[in-house]
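User: I'm writing a tutorial on reading structure tokens. Could you give me a worked example: one chain, its sequence, then its tokens, then a sentence or two explaining what the tokens reveal?
Assistant: Sure. Here is the example chain.
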Amino acid sequence: MSQSKNFIVALLVLIFGAGGCKSLAPNRSIAPSLLEKRSHAILMAALERQDPVLKVHALEALTVIPRLNVIPEMRRCLWDPIPAVRFAAAIAAGDMQDYPSRDFLRRLLQDQNVSVQLAAGYGLEKLGEKGFEDWYDNVLFSKDAKLAGQACMLLGKLGNTAERQHSREKLWYVFRMPNQSAAVQLQAAEALARLGDKSILKRLLVFASSIYADDRILAISGLEHIGGTDVYAQLTVLADDIQPEVCLAAIRALGNRAEEEQQKKARQYLRYQAPDGDKVATRRVRELALLAMGSLGTDRDIRLLYDFMGDSSESNYLKVAAARACLDYVKKVRPEILSQPVP
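And here are its predicted structure tokens:
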């Protein structure tokens, strides 16, 4: 379910190759405005490419920039031939408050792909339309684990609104349904954490100890939303996980609370090579390393990210990951820059 890994997934993220480490020596700070400008250029270029994976990641990253002049390029992705791209574009339209896209989103409610229909409903609800509660419930309580998981994820992203007063109750119901799949339970738990339900903490801590790396990574996302002493302790443990992806997700969640050894580990993973030569696994780890470095936010790391985006020898996937990491950093330190027009 790549769409749910925001997120993950799809959660889902890109990063530098080994050559990026050549810029570690300079320790000069980079102005947030320069970081944003270069990130913007990288992401807009990714939308012009034919690669659907690049487009999905670019769409997710561009939602960090609440700027009108990026919306028309994003809106074109609503009629992309690849369902995953339409899914990401529909979510982006809602998150960016793109009111002119409403007619396109209404058409997507009839899309042949049910996941795209769900995303269109999400987008329209974020734009103020009502009447999707019962429609969502049909999927939320279904036996289709993939769709139910996506519905949980989107329900968490919709937040605590007047239209969604009973979201927590519904997510708990989904979590406790007889014979419910562990995957849907975990997605419901992460959504409850997004909604600020601290009573899900014990369940998330259990998932954080799962034998499956993807479970631990999604649990980390939920823990990050809850925060607190217990969460910090668990993230510290997970930052030493033997699985690189889990370790890096935990370091990213720790952010500027990460200790020097944890920061060093994130940088070392930029050189990672999967033991079996798997290029996808190698890229995934490097992507997560980049995101972790953006969250660390040290001058050294931000300079490396900036230089990496300007290196013509590096992968477009990893450049997009570096751009997302930079935007996350800018959003924390100078959020007002993200709403200013790019010259």
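What the tokens reveal: The beta strands are 8-9. Confidence is low (pLDDT under 50) at residues 1-26.
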